[in-house]
# Entry
Amino acid sequence: LNRAKERFLDKQTERFDENEIGIGELGNKRRHLKQLCEVRFGNRFVGDMCLDDITHELLNEVVRRAMSVNRSKKTVRRAFVTIKQMLTWCTHHGWLLRSPAEGIKISLANEPFKDLRRIVPSEMTAVINAASPKYRREIMFAAYTGLRAGEQVALTWDHIDFEYGYVKVRQARKWGGALGPPKTDKGIRDIRMSNVVAQMLRKWKMEQPIQMRGNNFVFPTTFGSMADSGNWRKRGLQPSCANAVWTPDIMVQLPKRVEQMKWKDLRNFYASVLIFSKKVSDAEIAAMLGHSSLDFTYH
# Structure
């Protein structure tokens, strides 16, 4: 199995070189197959077994159980997608008569629902107001455009259409730091800016120091290179949440501290604003978030 795995991954590397798959997908396939090969069966690793010894029962019972330890069903299901792809590829090369992974299904029916961090507008306003000037723009922009962190760090001034009021998402930071297309085909999109966001960007473009303009990024580092969104979270968002105080939009007199947020919570906040405004259709919301459908957005 190990040799078949390496041949399969060589083919996936070729696909990456030809821009058929991204570096993230290639990395996931490597990780999934490494996990498969490291499962123990008796006194052997699965990776050391012959392809003909890989049975449906072995995959569905032993491998599935081993890979489920400390992993969610969703994670295991993603791994089995890669495993099925590799074994089907082996059948196409005549190394197997039939894929032993056929018929294996991992249902998410009983998977615990991960409750999303719910943020109301007044809470977000408190966080933005509490942010240091160095990170306030990045936080505000993320919360009111819904760009992914990788899309925001890759945003250039060429992608800001002030005349018609749009942010054009055309590229993103990929694993390894290279620039490439957004996460999916639907990720290429135009997002209408609110007046507040447009005003903030106009002011920032005029004030942006000359040493930050070399690569034309909207939100670069001090010396103009592509920023690290992890710093935005650790040095910007987390301290802002720690310092922010807000009064809930219900009849409560006492203000309260803001719970910590992840950077992705800003994108989720934008989605919730669109959904509850009821001024935008489901299809338009999904398009602005770069999703294929609103079902994906809700999950």
User: Anything to note?
Assistant: Residues 294-299 have pLDDT under 50 and may be disordered.
